[in-house]
Amino acid sequence: MAGKKQFDMDTALDAAMIQFWHAGYADTSVGDLSRVTGLNRSSLYASFGDKDTLFLCCLERYAARYGAAYDAALSCAATDPVAAVRAFFDVTLERIADPALPDGCLVAQSAMAIPVLSQSVAAHAKEALGFQRRRLRAALEAGPLGDRDAEAFAEHTAAVNQSLAVMSRAGASPAQLLAVVGVTLDALSQALRGR
């Protein structure tokens, strides 16, 4: 249509996601979102709804994007759980090392902000955090670990994965992050040898 500015929805969502990821929900204003998406406030509201709705779209986008990568990494868990968990961590470490992306993890950052989030947004942040643990548990249960050990390692691995994101945001070096990953992989290897 003549006179109407067209925009790419995916580009705008990615820009908003990066803004929330970089600054956090509470420190991202509608003005910030307008600036990074290139949409004025009325266009932003008309296209995405309020700030909570846009944040939820961004959180779902983030979870889907990296969830697919985590699923691919864990695909060999039934036959080689250690390689699968290593590949799982590699997804996080590669994302952390990407200079085009903010440090940390949008899901971990959102979970830490739960006290200041609306009930609906907080529930989605908790759900996104829990989904990673459930993904790990399902993958590890398909392998030689028993259900109880699979649950324990899933809980531990998810916690370590979120810690990597927090540590990276605080300036930890790649060597420090790899050392943390190594402890988890060693523990998993020992548990598998003991079976």
From TrEMBL:
Origin: domain of life: Bacteria
Tagged with keyword Transcription regulation: yes
Organism, as annotated: Streptomyces evansiae
The protein's name in its UniProt record: TetR/AcrR family transcriptional regulator
Keyword Transcription regulation recorded: yes
Positions of the DNA-binding region: 29-48
SUPFAM superfamilies linked: Homeodomain-like, Tetracyclin repressor-like, C-terminal domain
Residues in HTH tetR-type domain copies: 6-66
Record keywords, A-Z: DNA-binding, Transcription, Transcription regulation
Coiled-coil boundaries: none
